[in-house]
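Re: that backbone. Tokens:
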């Protein structure tokens, strides 16, 4: 009996060394960069994604996250992915329109009305269609994460109607649709990389910027701004992009684990954003900023005035892309 037990143990050992656990996984160091800071909900998302990867890969797939633009801005990091020298980035879609013009569809003012509606479009077949365009440009979008609805902050005056934008120096992302949206409202819009925004606000080189509350909080813009207006003028998604050149060298199991865990991270990140939205707003108010919410009427006026932007950019985005999202939103809203 004892001999038999020993023999069985020996066989088990031999087997387990011949086929080690997680054989389909290699040790990988996955660098993922971000423009925002580690206390942004993207940090929670990355943690949840790592826990999922640990489980699936036996600790072999390791994320190293870089925060605060340490590996460059959204666009620079995305180009590093395309040339295969960096694995991943969490980036806004907006600065990538020079690479993939169709992404501009997400920059159209007042496109999405609620986060749920955005999730349905992004996680469904419209999102898949955009992912195909990204792949053709050397970028694998593992999942759509959340940046959120964007609101205006400024240091000059309360903004409660579109006429208040007149002459205001507003930083916009490096994106023509945002540029036109704000010029059209009378602002003096200035494209600028995210990494330069804090000091430009601090030195009054610009008066205003627009980002979700959570970013205004975690990137400390509230320290150098006096007024906020809840404009909800755009919901621009985050993309969790992976270098296609690197992804293609991974095993199918590694690829599947990355895709599945990116979705786990996404759900956590979206959940934390929804919770933090309110906390961030409270913090901004407590810091002494005046917060204005646009009246329904004013929002309708701004929306109506902004519709020229749709027509102006339709051809460059792709008429079929704009029509497809509008049709999908109409179907969701029915
Ligand atoms: C922007 C974006 C940024 C994000 C961040 C750098 O205003 O909203 O906050 O892309 O990752 O540039």
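Recovered sequence:
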């Amino acid at each position: 009996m004892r001999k038999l037990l020993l023999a069985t143990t020996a066989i088990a050992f031999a087997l387990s060394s011949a086929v080690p656990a997680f054989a389909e996984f290699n040790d990988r160091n996955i660098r993922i960069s971000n423009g925002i800071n580690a206390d942004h909900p993207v940090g929670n998302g990355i943690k949840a994604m790592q826990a999922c990867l640990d489980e699936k890969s036996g600790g072999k797939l390791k994320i190293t996250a870089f925060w605060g633009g340490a590996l460059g801005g959204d666009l620079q990091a995305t180009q590093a992915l395309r040339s295969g020298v960096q694995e991943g980035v969490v980036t806004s879609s907006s600065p990538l329109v020079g690479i993939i013009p169709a992404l501009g569809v997400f920059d159209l003012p007042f496109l999405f009305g609620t986060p749920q509606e955005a999730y349905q479009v992004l996680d469904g077949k419209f999102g898949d269609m955009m992912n195909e365009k990204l792949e053709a440009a050397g970028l694998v979008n593992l999942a759509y994460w959340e940046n959120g609805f964007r609101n205006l902050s400024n240091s000059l005056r309360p903004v409660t109607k579109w006429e208040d934008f007149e002459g205001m120096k507003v930083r916009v992302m490096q994106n023509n649709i945002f540029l036109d949206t704000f010029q059209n409202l009378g602002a003096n819009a200035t494209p600028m990389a995210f990494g330069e925004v804090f000091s430009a606000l601090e030195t009054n080189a610009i008066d205003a910027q627009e980002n979700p509350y959570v970013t205004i909080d975690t990137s400390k813009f509230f320290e150098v701004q006096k007024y906020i207006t809840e404009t909800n003028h755009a919901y621009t998604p985050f993309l969790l992009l992976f270098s296609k050149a690197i992804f293609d060298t991974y095993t199918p199991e590694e690829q599947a684990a990355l895709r599945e865990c990116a979705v786990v991270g996404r759900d956590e990140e979206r959940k934390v954003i929804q919770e933090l939205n309110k906390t961030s707003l409270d913090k901004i108010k407590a810091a002494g900023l005046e917060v204005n919410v646009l009246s329904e009427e004013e929002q309708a006026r701004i929306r109506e005035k902004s519709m020229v932007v749709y027509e102006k950019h339709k051809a460059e985005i792709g008429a079929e892309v704009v029509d497809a999202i509008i049709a999908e939103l109409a179907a969701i809203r029915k």
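Residues 34-36, 74, 91-92, 147, 173, 194, 211, 215 surround TF8 (CB under 6 Å). The first strand starts at residue 28 and ends at 34.
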